[in-house]
Design a protein that fits this description.
By secondary structure, this protein is an alpha/beta fold. The chain is 32% helix and 21% strand. The protein contains 8 helices and 10 strands. Strands 1, 2, 3, 4, 5, 6, 7, 8, 9 and 10 form a 10-stranded mixed β-sheet that branches. Strand 5 and strand 6 form a beta hairpin. The longest helix is centred in the middle third of the chain and has 19 residues. The two termini are 15 Å apart.
Length: 272
């Protein structure tokens, strides 16, 4: 029988970034799911504070070379890869000089100021993951997104790529964390992120894009939600409950691999 394929899209993974509860899940969840017998692929942004030499990142020429257009500007998509040898895992990095490589931090500058173009970076990262999976021709059964920079993947897959045979049977799981930001994206984000297939109604939350509205959009187009932190934004907690989507409560570090694996299986079983 063919292995279940799980695509992990993470904003943070240790050891490439500092240890946080989210980056630890990024490191150990895929390994645990792989040990359960599933096939995995893992993506994250290639933030500029990731040491390329120490972590042995190298460009994958056959996957790079595409340009993504955001707000009428072309941005080259560069794909790099590195391995966590003891876990036998390969990590794909979405890179671009302007959005990632040239900056020596993640979402804010050295003074803690939120990058003004985090809106464009979110679009680029989400679209970059999807385009790379298309090039790999790898159909995931489950797509599990972590961190707000992955928040547009559900709407793109459900509205733009819904008829693509790689994705039309995929189950999308979105993990909510206590990773709120207090800024808002620049006005017009609801138009900037749109691709053919997305209607104004689909992006109703994005007319003013703050953290909560970005997460509501991710929830709307996901098939299921996992609470990745013990405490998440109360408004989002209420919103998740109102959708009546399959939900998995917060799991301790000792239990989450088994619980997530069973959750994936239940979503795929209910699909059949």
């Amino acid at each position: 029988m063919e292995k279940t394929k799980v695509l992990f899209v993470h904003q943070e993974i240790t050891p490439y970034l500092e240890e946080t509860p989210m980056s630890n899940i990024g490191r150990y969840l895929p390994e645990g799911i792989q040990l359960k017998g599933k096939e995995i692929r893992i993506f994250m942004p290639r933030f500029g504070n990731i040491n390329e030499r120490r972590n042995q990142l190298h460009e994958v020429i056959r996957l790079s070379g595409m340009n993504l257009i955001i707000n009428d500007t072309d941005y080259p998509l560069i794909i790099k890869v590195a391995s966590i040898q003891k876990a036998r895992m390969q990590i794909y990095f979405i890179d671009n000089d302007d959005f990632f490589t040239k900056r020596k931090s993640t979402i804010a500058d050295k003074n803690g100021v939120f990058f003004e173009d985090n809106d464009d970076r979110t679009v680029f990262f989400s679209r970059g993951v999807i385009e790379t999976i298309r090039k790999l021709n790898w159909p995931p059964d489950v797509i599990h997104c972590h961190g707000w920079m992955s928040a547009l993947i559900p709407i793109y897959l459900k509205k733009v790529f819904m008829d693509n045979p790689l994705f039309n049977e995929s189950k999308i799981v979105y993990s909510l964390y206590d990773d709120d930001f207090t800024n808002t994206f620049r006005s017009g984000f609801d138009k900037k992120m749109k691709l053919q297939g997305i209607s104004p109604k689909d992006v109703k939350h994005l007319k003013k894009t703050d953290y909560v509205n970005l997460m509501k959009t991710a929830i709307d187009f996901s098939d299921a939600v996992i609470y990745g932190s013990e405490n998440i934004n109360p408004e989002l907690d209420e919103y998740v409950k109102s959708t009546k989507k399959p939900t998995l409560a917060y799991q301790s570090p000792e239990n989450y691999v088994d619980a997530y694996n069973d959750f994936y299986d239940s979503l795929l079983t209910n699909q059949k």
